[in-house]
Design a protein that fits this description.
764 residues, alpha/beta, Rossmann fold, 7-stranded parallel sheet, 30 helices, binds adenosine-5'-triphosphate, ATP binding, ATP-dependent RNA helicase, Helicase_ATP-bd, helicase
Length: 764
């Protein structure tokens, strides 16, 4: 077919295609799939990566809804299910470009860290004509929203169908399909053939048209190279350093490996991007956009972006760790040489992994061996500083290297490596190649050894034959406790889902560990009551215990299990209450302190007892209360003279030097409170006064102060206005306010600002 005009398409769709400019001639898969889908038939389509499958379902959806004169008031008309958020976004963009002339709306229901809340998404489901979703999120809606209604649905598309229908997600999909209305039209698209008729029967396809385009990808070259485990990092370094003018996508087997490689390269001033599932949605999107838009860039990623993502002009795809299946290899390699572009795929293998090449060749992938020079993997120390030094200085990086080490071994274990094979690797050299002086201890191997020696796995929860992962999770995001989960087997060897599960039974008998939180979530979803304490009365009748999560005041068990959001809310409330109580406590303390101070003030001249001083010092850390501008103190240690305003308040407390002495040896707070010698010279310098500031005193002269602490000498020198109190205190008439009243005030004394005196005192 030479042009899209040859299809029976609406003017709106054709104009949309023309607007896009790149879509001139339909690709082979489009030529075959679009007419069948527009006819209303179920379609099962498979074509190589980058062959234009997205457009092959976008056009029929637009056309079919257009023909039904669909509008947003009709509700949801088409649902597209796709494995990842990035892919959903990409599909939405194609709808947006090609469908811009239609009066249809497209919404995303993808959840996740940055995903909108369920209520918002529910509105999208109700109002939008076309919704693109990830399986995990749509399942959330189906489970949690009683108003979930997809009865108006006409077309369902399953993109990356082989992935969505594979063993790990079979159960999720079964639940989703249960909620979908029939009759409906179903379109399945994948780069590799879906595996068995049993899979399809679950989707209730009605005499599907099978469309398969088996074209060779001429632009894609495949190479593999053998690199020892300890040479991988150096290989990567040299590769990146050599191909600086390229766009490179590097796949590794785990999130932890991505993180370590990313960090170590960044610290060596090699700018790389990282993309993996656990990344916050914001950073994930930023990395995705960066890689999309930049011309010469390196990105290290997990399988999160092995499928479907359409990055333009990727020159190299490097698979640093051997993929688990041929399909995985095909999808990863397919990120380069998109549509009519060219690109190269490089597979890095350990010696023992070389048989994988035969599997690829069996699938007619023409892959050739390319040896790299010794120096690329062995001799050169590529880094700016040696990795050991770097890790020694950076504990974070060291911990990351250790995690990377363990995660890689776990990947090998999941891929079928067992102790004898693992022993063939030089693990200590591998550890050193990551910059680790010691080889990290691998607990899971110890556990397995113990188990093999007859012991059981200690204290772990087990679950038989459960599906291993959920869609929303990063596929390669493992914890050490998940080691007994079996990875997806090579599709070639894999029978239908049900058979798979039964076959895996003996393997899974080895038990999979799941976290408590995961268990709680599962129970909550299933409506199982957990954390419920039931007491029985004397007659053996169950009594519900108030306060347990299952207790409802009306009596009766209505909701069950651990509601995480409710628990969070409760914690917040408790937190608030704690804060209020703490504030009250502090207020009360201040009140008591003030009371004590007032009592003390009533006895002017009377020396403070040691415990009273202590009481004053108790307000530790309460700076406001101390009434001292801490910033104005010379220093917090030696006490000192504070230059400030003259006796502002009438209420003053007097202590003698004798009392000051113990305080000086006491804590910082007490000293501060007692450093109240405030002196000021009047403007003409003739009359100089020394005042005891609020609540503080000390019959100390500036010179004595300097004698006590030589550091004060400097400040005395600078100011030349040091005031020295010769007479401690006396009673005077206060006339400043215009009223006459009695008050305690230090005598204004004329004293020389006396550096000499200080010096003399210092010399003794
Ligand atoms: N008819 C066409 N003419 C020109 N370019 C096209 C055409 N159809 C699709 N493309 C381009 O080809 C690229 C790959 O398309 P798409 O992502 O749909 O491939 P795919 O088959 O879904 O790949 P994958 O299997 O990896 O998901 C996109 O950049 C798209 O714009």
């Amino acid at each position: 077919m030479d042009s899209f005009e040859e299809f029976d398409l609406s003017e709106e769709t054709l104009e949309g295609l023309r607007d896009c400019a790149i879509y001139k001639v339909p690709s082979p898969i489009q030529t075959k799939a679009i007419p069948a889908a527009i006819e209303g038939r179920d379609v099962l389509a498979a074509a190589r990566t980058g062959s234009g499958k997205t457009l092959a379902f976008v056009i029929p959806i637009l056309e079919l809804l257009h023909r039904e004169k669909w509008s947003d008031t009709f509700g949801l008309g088409a649902l597209v299910i796709t494995p990842t958020r990035e892919l959903a976004l990409q599909i939405a963009k194609v709808f947006h470009e090609v469908g811009r002339r239609h009066k249809l709306s497209v919404g995303l229901v993808v959840g996740g860290h940055g995903g909108r809340d369920l209520a918002h998404e529910r509105k999208i489901m109700e109002k939008y004509s076309i919704v693109i979703c990830t399986p995990g999120r749509i399942l959330d809606h189906m489970d949690k929203s009683h108003r979930f209604d997809v009865s108006s649905l006409k077309i369902v598309v399953i993109d990356e169908a082989d992935r969505i229908l594979d063993m790990s997600f079979a159960r999720d999909m079964a639940s989703i399909v249960e909620h979908l209305p029939t009759p409906r039209q179903t379109l399945l698209f994948s780069a590799t053939q879906t595996r068995s008729v049993k899979d399809l029967s679950r989707l209730s396809l009605d005499r599907p048209v099978v469309v398969s385009v088996d074209e060779q990808v001429e632009g894609l070259k495949h190479f593999y190279t053998l690199v020892p485990l300890e040479g991988k990092l150096k290989f990567l370094w040299n590769f990146i350093k050599t191909a600086t003018q390229s766009k490179i996508l590097v796949f590794v087997s785990s999130t932890k490996e991505v993180k370590y490689l990313h960090d170590v390269l960044q610290k060596n001033e090699v700018r790389v991007l990282a993309l993996y599932g656990k990344l916050s949605q914001m950073r994930r999107t930023a990395a995705y956009q960066d890689f999309l838009n930049k011309q010469h860039v390196v990105m290290i990623a997990t399988d999160l972006c092995e499928r479907g993502l359409d990055f333009p002009n990727v020159d190299w795809v490097v698979q640093l760790d051997c993929p688990d299946t041929v399909e995985q290899y095909i999808h990863r390699a397919g990120r380069t040489a998109r549509y009519d572009k060219s690109g190269t795929s490089v597979l890095v293998l350990l010696d023992r992994e070389e048989p994988f090449v035969e599997k690829l060749q069996a699938k007619e992938i023409s892959i050739t061996r390319q040896d790299v020079s010794e120096s690329a993997v062995r001799r050169v120390t590529p880094m700016k500083t040696s990795l050991e030094n770097m890790l020694a200085r950076d504990p974070e990086l060291k911990a990351s290297a250790q995690r990377c080490f363990k995660a890689y071994l776990m990947h090998l274990w999941k891929s079928g490596w067992r102790e004898p094979e693992l022993k063939t690797l030089d693990l200590s050299a591998y550890a050193q190649s990551l910059g680790l002086y010691d080889q990290p201890r691998i607990r899971f191997l110890d556990r397995l050894r113990r188990r093999d020696a007859g012991g059981d796995l200690p204290g772990k929860t087990a679950e038989k034959g459960s599906s291993s992962k959920s869609f929303s999770n990063d596929q390669s995001d493992e914890s050490e406790d998940e080691i007994l989960t079996v990875k997806q087997k090579d599709v070639k060897d894999a029978p239908a889902v049900e058979e798979d599960l039964s076959k895996l039974e003996p393997v899974n008998n080895k038990l999979r560990h799941i976290s408590k939180a995961a268990l709680a979530r599962k129970e909550a979803n299933k409506g199982i009551l957990s954390n419920t304490r039931i007491r029985f009365d004397d007659d053996g009748n169950a009594l519900l215990v108030e306060g347990s999560s299952a207790y409802v005041s009306q009596g009766g068990i209505t909701s069950a299990g651990l509601d995480l959001s409710e628990a969070k809310q409760r914690l917040l409330e408790v937190d608030k209450e704690d804060q209020l109580a703490q504030r009250k406590r502090i207020k009360e303390k201040h009140r008591l302190e003030n009371k004590k101070r007032k009592e003390l003030r009533r006895k002017p001249g009377q020396p403070l007892a040691r415990d009273e001083l202590q009481a004053m010092g108790d307000g530790e850390g309460d700076e406001e209360d101390a009434g001292v501008t801490l910033g104005s103190l010379d220093d917090g240690e030696g006490g000192g003279v504070t230059w400030g305003s003259f006796g502002e308040e009438e209420d003053e407390t007097v202590i003698t030097e004798a009392e000051y002495e113990p305080a000086k040896r006491g804590n910082r707070k007490k000293r501060r409170m007692l450093q109240g010698v405030v002196a000021e010279a009047d403007s003409n310098g003739e009359e100089e006064k020394v005042s005891m500031k609020k609540r503080k005193t000390g019959a100390k002269t500036a010179a004595e102060e300097a004698a006590v602490d030589p550091r004060k000498l400097n400040s005395l020198r600078k100011t030349k206005k040091a005031q020295v109190v010769e007479e401690p205190v006396r009673h005077v008439e206060d006339t400043r306010s215009g009223r006459t009243k009695k008050r305690v005030e230090p005598a204004p004394v004329n004293v020389q600002a006396d550096e000499d005196l200080a010096l003399r005192l210092l010399r003794g």
